[in-house]
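Lab manual, section 2.4: Encoding a predicted structure.

Procedure: take the sequence of the chain (377 residues), apply the prediction step described in section 2.3, and record the output as structure tokens. A sample record is shown.
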Amino acid sequence: MNKETLYAIALSRIKGIGISNALMLYKLVGSATYLFESLPDLRKEYGSSIRPRVFNLLDGGAMAAVKEAEQEAIFCEKHGIEVLDFAHSCYPSRLQMCEDAPLVLYYRGNADLNALHVLSIVGTRHATEYGKDVCQRFVSDLARLFPDSLVVSGLAYGIDISAHRAALNAGLPTVAVLAHGLDRIYPYTHRDTAKAMIGQGGLLTEFPINTNPDRGNFVRRNRIVAGLADAVIVVESGHKGGSIITARLASSYGRQVFAFPGRIFDEYSQGCIDLLRNNIAGVVTDAESLAIEMGWLTEQQRQTALSNPVQAELFPDLTDEEMAVVNVLKNQENLSMNEISQQTEIPLGILVTLLLQMEMKGLVKALPGNRYRFIQR
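Recorded output:
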């Protein structure tokens, strides 16, 4: 291991320094090596830019942190773990753009973390058979359309593990972001899947060895799940949970967020409905619809994809609610889901599914920003 990487580990290990301070120091000084080898001169050189408390943490913790980094390096070299410091060519470039990115990542695997298309698929630990089936079908279609895609999730029970296994089955690389060090696997029951992922994807974490999967670590790792990807897809979720946190983080990073609408009365569709209602997420129903929204298709591919869904008859027999939506959209170029709900007096929980059904019939078109327009015939 080179000196720069060793010192980057050490900087991330100084007690009390924190994620933001470690990254700030690294960017300010420009080199972890220079920072450690010039500690006596740092106050003079950067005294106006670094708070006294941070200098005190450096002075008091640098030597111990270097010793810990040396032990970490020995373990990593012995077990084939690659250490990606912030300047490493394999460090995820999407994650580098996040202001709270980790200074160091520990990685075991063979996937390209800078793949052309990267999707994070997340959801509840209490996945239903419907949710598992959605994962399988979506990832299978994704592999057909974009075999260069990388699927990211968190190795947890439910949707996470379903997404990983679907990717393995479809021949796509898949990476798990862990809430602990690479000296263990949690949950242990997923160890066989984790082993398979090392050969077809990988395991990634910001946490050093001897880090337990404590509750707070799962919240912290969610920002990496969000930051690694072009888009985050929520398959199933309750009103609260890690997947909702991940979706909100992705939105704050300027990433696209999508949600499967699910069934309106199901407990684990409520989080997805919330994301759609609050315009945090757009509706996704399959890999083609996501690819269109992401702009991943050529114009010819896009037109082919748009022509594939079953088309409605010229004058279909519409329900009263469908006719109300059509009448509103005929008179205005496009409306948000909230505006449609207000003008038709159809509750949002019902409207989510109604609009999805109308889209599949070819009656309406979903637009960016969770807006809709009527398709003229």
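Check your result against the sample. The radius of gyration is 24 Å.
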